[in-house]
Predict the structure of T9SS type A sorting domain-containing protein.
Amino acid sequence: LTLTASTTAPSPTYKWSTGATTAALTVTTAGTYSVTMTSGTCKATTAKTVTGSGAAPTVAISGTTVLSCSQPSLTLTASTTAPSPTYKWSTGATTAALSVTTAGTYSVTMTSGTCKATAAKTVTGGCISGRIAATASAEIERMPLSIRVYPNPVHGQLQVEVTSDGAEPVNLHLYDMKGIVLIHTDLAPREGTQQVNIPLNQSPSGHYILVAVSGKEKANAHVIIE
């Protein structure tokens, strides 16, 4: 800040306690500053006390900065020694503490009176690799759709075993060689193997295709009726 000495005396000269001889004195530290004015044979002295600190306030961010599957969220905390601070994070939050669940750089601006200070912290990590591994494992372990028929050739009852992951219903269609559906049976979703009997007593002898459909999966078996 600047302290300025003034007088109504003619042709004044000034001398500050710092040794400066100008009317205006720039001050950067707290303390008492005196100035002596000389005008001819006359002198006068006055003093002014400066308080506070000339150092710019700072803000700091504390907290762990690595996310993981075991720690999917963390807290960043802003702090300062400046009086009556307010905070504003880059996310828009206005609290000193910020909860973080995704990687990225987070900045905070502290305001204290007319003073401002900014700090930033980068958060890394996450649980992406864990989710990828879980998805890959699920794909590998998924049970494929399959069917088995017996006896084959058949005369009478056809035994059908259907194996699926149980995610969706299974539709069974028996087609003749012309592509005409002779029999249609629906099975409820069930993980593992289900058995169903299909009566073929009234079906003419010949070659047929039994098709199982579950979602986007298909399986088929060649059936011979005697």
